Amino acid sequence: MIDMKIYMSIPVERIFIALLLVFFMFADYGCSRSAGPVNSDFDIVILNGRVIDPSSGLDEVRNLGIVDSKIQMITEKAISGRSLIDAKGLVISPGFIDIHQHGQDAENYRYKVMDGVTTVLELEMGTNDIDKWYAEREGKAIINQGVSIGHVPLRIKLMNDPGTFAPLADAAYREATADEIEILKKGIEQGLDQGGIGVGFGLMYTPAASRWEILEMFRAAAKYEAPCVVHIRYAGLKEPNSCIAALEEVISAAAVTGAPLHVVHITSIGFSQTPMMLQMISEARSQGVDISVECYPYPATQTLIESAIYDGDWRGSWGIDYSDLQWIETGKRLTEKTFNEYRKRGGMVIAHSIPEEVVKSTIANPDVIIASDGMMSEGKGHPRGVGSFARLLGKYVRDENIISLKDGLKKITLMPAQRLEKIAPAFKNKGRISVGADADITIFDPDQIIDQATYEDPALYSKGIHHVLVNGVVVVNQGALVENIFPGKGIRGVVRE
Fold it and tell me: Of 222 and 8, which is predicted with more confidence?
């Protein structure tokens, strides 16, 4: 029995407060422990994964709800949907963005998506016909893609050069007339009007292009605030045509015209002098030049042996010899004899020319984006075209602890997106895990992710990529490629026509 005398002696106010406390305690318990789903209208839910979003800094276990092509919810609470991905023990990351990818066909797209990439961009060389390039891929791509208007392909077309990827005749070795420079300039403006993502330059492939010609192209880009994505004119250590002189040229062009500048694969240009180049870029940025830079996570380059890059004293300038070259078709190292034979025949060659310590220090630089410079053909090529992103996260993040996982992801998600969002606003919704962002998502095992492609066997898919979503569609499921689906979209800059 309750002692009513004791009960009646307690002030009414205290009883009321006690009842309120009990009420809110049970109300809170009920909300946080609710067995029912918050929402059952999601197309896909991703549960129990460690969400790492470099934009917000989030690094916690969360559940994601996806409707159509967008992320609609990020929550700690239970959610349900028509399709479920259990990401327990895995990392949920923004889909990787490869800002420098030459291979732009179905074969290369398969390699990229199995490396966690959801968007690939051909910005260094570009194309001479923006509309045609996008039309050829519409409805046929497993991942998102985009392209720049390219100075090199415009030169090839104008000068009737027989080259395709790189010029081999007049487009490489003949100086343009004043009238031809105007035609090239108008071609760049037309390409930017059609939505080209910046202007691509391969200055090392066009040694006859005058400094004035390049300045005029930068001026065209500046009118649109379009980034100039540049393979600079010289590589290596030998003056007067050193990597330092080449970098000075494009920094000067950006400062004179006001055009944004992006310097590609800096380690394969600077070799042991890469730290000096990075210092120059940092100093230029501190003086107001809009400049960014990238590298790939390998100590070897790849390009056409017949191109202008292998003219002149490349051995003295790069500090390597014939035995440092590797023929892609056979995997064998070259001699002077085979170099001259292959130079006449033509084809891709790998140069083992970048010191490993330079690769590491460049990756560790917080301002450097990671890209692949990838291009595979019938299973042949440089392993960077297949394993760059898994290599970054496996070898350099996990195994060698060069940078943190969050910083590694930032270099392949948020940083490339931010670099391009001014010229192509669609990138404001990429490279992020946030409500309203595009559902381009990569889910991987941080303890298992690693590249498997090698110089001798470059077509081996990366390990540890469990799921990949492109625009809300699963394209890699439990580590296996999903065939015959094409959710990739063409991403353009601002179209002005």
Answer: 222
